[in-house]
Specification:
The protein is of the alpha+beta class. 35% of the residues lie in helices and 20% in strands. Strand 6 (154-160) and strand 7 (164-166) form a beta hairpin.
């Protein structure tokens, strides 16, 4: 029902090497063999370790993905190239990630691959809403939760902007620190850390789709040095690396209509938050200029007319998600089993520890089964 369209191909783009991958893992392996022939045996041992690892075990503790990688791979450039797409697509940690999450992302991106539903993410949301309502669920739109009431460390009520509801179970996807704040406790009291990672994104709409003879990749993970600098940017944004996405190349057969491009940079929430309204507009134009420059660098012969563009910043993310500091991948404090210091209050989504759209759905299902159906 999602009507998924596969990627054409994606590229990890570093100065000295490029690695292409598709939804066929064999191509990725062949690219590693071609580009890093002295690392072939090491890479195969890493893949064997990944395949034997139980990444969904809720009892897994944190271990450094980079340390595990370096115990198998002796070429630092290959280590950086392997981890680059996985960091930008899901890590709450600067320059590293939990190995269990690395395995989730490695299997998802390199072994299973990218796809996009017909109509975009709205297609998924609509299907989930239909399923939820058929199962007897009720969705309250425009009714934000203002407080989670606890008594003797147990959930008793939630207060929204419209009503008060009595309940002994709450599953929260707003984020771990954000959830604790709704209980009117300081999250610092529980040693919860707000993630530092936030992003800028530019969307560019051109009058026609790119000619696939010029550019047929779906996503390019661009980095202009041999080390991937995955951390909160020192300036407003960091154009030294980017994710460049051409959604039209999920479906190469239909080339009619407008063309769309997305460019994502690392950013700094605090510096965007401090800007005046006028300075904010001016700086967004500079982000657009950097995005357009990258587009022209990656897509040969780009000459299309730009019909529309827009830029969102970390403060945009905070406005529409209520995530502290505009963080995208949540806190570095994850709760694998979903529990919190309060009985009946559970975390689902990124701060439980499963990543991405599919991971978020799996997280909610897993926690509802564990703390809802099984306990009932």
């Amino acid at each position: 029902e999602f009507e998924l369209h596969e990627q054409s191909n994606s590229v990890i783009d570093f100065p000295e090497h490029k690695i292409k991958f598709t939804n066929e893992f064999e191509l990725f392996e062949s690219e590693i063999i071609k580009t890093f022939p002295d690392q072939v045996d090491n890479f195969k041992k890493l893949v064997t370790h990944i395949n034997s690892f139980d990444e969904l075990n809720l009892d897994q503790g944190y271990s450094s993905a980079k340390e595990v990688l370096k115990s198998f791979i002796s070429d630092n450039i290959l280590v950086e190239m392997l981890i680059c797409p996985l960091l930008i697509y899901g890590s709450a940690w600067e320059d590293d990630m939990d190995f269990a999450q690395f395995v989730i992302m490695f299997k998802s991106i390199y072994m299973e691959g990218f796809s996009r539903p017909e109509g975009g993410v709205r297609t998924i949301i609509d299907k989930l809403l239909e399923k939820f309502e058929r199962a007897g669920g009720v969705v309250h739109f425009r009714e934000g939760v203002e407080k989670i009431i606890t008594s003797k460390n147990k959930v008793t009520n939630i207060i929204t902007n419209k009503a008060t509801y009595e309940t002994d179970k709450v599953f929260s996807s707003v984020g771990y620190p954000e959830t604790i704040k709704l209980t009117e406790n300081e999250f610092s009291k529980f040693d919860l850390r707000v993630g530092k990672l936030s992003f800028m994104e530019t969307i560019i709409v051109a009058d026609k789709k790119v000619n696939t003879s010029d550019f047929d990749s779906t996503i390019v993970f661009h980095n202009n040095s041999n080390t991937y600098n995955y951390k909160k940017s020192e300036g407003l944004f960091d154009a030294s690396s980017a994710v460049f996405c051409c959604p039209d190349n999920y479906e190469l057969n239909n080339r009619s209509g407008e063309g769309t491009y997305r460019v994502t940079f690392m950013a700094n929430y605090d510096k965007w938050k401090a800007l005046s309204k006028e300075a904010y507009k001016e700086q967004k134009e500079l982000v657009f200029d950097a995005s357009l420059s990258l587009l022209k660098n990656l897509v040969p012969n780009f000459s299309e007319t730009i019909n529309f563009y827009d830029v969102f910043s970390p403060t945009t993310i905070q406005r529409y998600t209520s995530h502290f500091d505009g963080t995208v991948y949540g806190s570095t404090t994850k709760t694998r089993d979903g529990t919190t210091p309060f009985s009946g209050l559970y975390i689902i989504g990124t701060d439980q520890g499963f990543l991405g759209i599919v991971g978020s759905m799996l997280s909610g299902i897993s926690m509802a089964n564990l703390h809802g159906l099984m306990e009932s």
